[in-house]
Amino acid sequence: MTTKKGRKITGGKYVQNRKKKANETGRQIRIIKLGKEKRRNKRVKGGRDKSFLLRASMINLLIDGEIKKISIKNVLETPSNKFLARQNILTKGTIVETDLGKAKITNRPSRDGIVNGLLLR
Question: Is residue 90 part of a domain?
Answer without folding.
Answer: yes
